[in-house]
Write the C-alpha cells for this entry.
Amino acid sequence: MTGQAKGVATEPLGLYVHVPFCASTCDFCAFYQTEPTAAAVKGFLSGVEKEASLVSWERPVSTVFWGGGTPGLLAPGDLARLAETVLRFAGGRPEEWTVELAPSSVTERRLGALLEAGVTRVSLGVQSFQPALLEALGRQHSVAQIARAHGRIREAGFKSVNIDLMFALPGQTAEGWAADVSEAVALAPDHISTYCLTFEEDTALWIKLSQGKVRLDPEKEALFYEAAWAQLAAAGYGQYEISNFARPGHACAHNINTWRMGEWIGLGPSAASQQGGWRCSNPADLAKWTDGLSHGERATEDRRELTPALLAEDALIFGLRMNEGVDLAGLKARFPGAPWQGFEEKLGRMFRDGIAEREGDRVRLTGRGRLLADAVGEEMLS
C-alpha cells in the first residue's frame, strides 16, 4: 500500500524542470550540468516535450520551478518554447512559477519571454556581494551585475523576487556576512534565502576540504545563522524555514509543497519526481536521458515506493525545518501505517534535550534545535 492517494484534485501538484546548462562549474555545485551547445539545447527542449507526453497528468499543476544549471543561459526563444511545453501539459497557468537566474544572464529579452509566459517569481543567484568571495566560489558575475539584474527584474514587473546568499564561505568574516545581508536588504527583494556552504562529494570544494585547504567550523556556522536571523527579522523578513525568509505573501509555495511531502513531477536529466505512489530520479546524464525518451520511456532510477513510513519520516525531517513545525495528529491521520511509536520516542528525547517543543499536536524546533536541524534529520533517519 502506498502512502499517497492518486489524482486528488484538491492537492497541490508541483512541476520541476531541470535545465542542465552552465557556462562554468562553481566550486560548491554538485548539481548535474553540461555545456550548452546548440545541439545539446535542441535535444533538451525536444526531450522535455517527449517526457511530458509520457507523464500521467492527473490534475492541473499548481506550482512550477525551473532550476539548474542556469536556465538563463537559454535564448529567449528557447525559454518561450520550454514555457509552451509547460503550459501545454500543466492544465493552465500555475499559481506560482519560479525561474532561477544568474545575474550575468539577466537581459530584458529573457525577462520579457518569461513574463509573457506567466512566470511570477525570479530567484537570483547572488551568493555574495564580496568580489573576492565570488571569485573563490567560481561565480561568473560581478557586484555591478547583481544590482543591474535586480533592477531589470523589478522593472519588468514580476510578482516576487528572491535573492540567494551563501555563508560560512572560506575566508568569510562575520562582518563580511553582515554586510552581504545588508546589501541584499538594501535591494528590497520580496524573499531572501541564506544557505550554509555544504561540501558535496566530487566538487572542487570537497577536494580542497580533503586536502586540508579549507575546514569545517560548526561554531562559526551557528554564529552566522543567528546573526542573519536577527538581521533579517529586524528588516521585516519573516523566517518560515531555516534558510528562507519572506515578506508576507511571498513564501515559495513550490518548496512548501515539497517539504510537506506533496506530489511533484520532475522533467529533465537528474530531475526527481514524487507522484502516483513512487519516488524516482531521471539519470544525471543528458545523453542517457535523451536515449531513454527516444525509446518511448522515462529512464527513471532509484525508484522507491512511497510507503507511509517513508513519507512520515520525510514529513517530519523537512517539516521540522519549517517555523510552523508539524501537526502530529494530521500526519498520523495521513500516514496511519507509519511507526509512530518510534517517532514519538525520538521526539520525546528532543523535548527533554530542549531541541524541540510541543504545543498540543504542533511540534516545532526551538531556536537551539534549528541550529541542529541536520542532526535532527539524522536522528529521524537512525
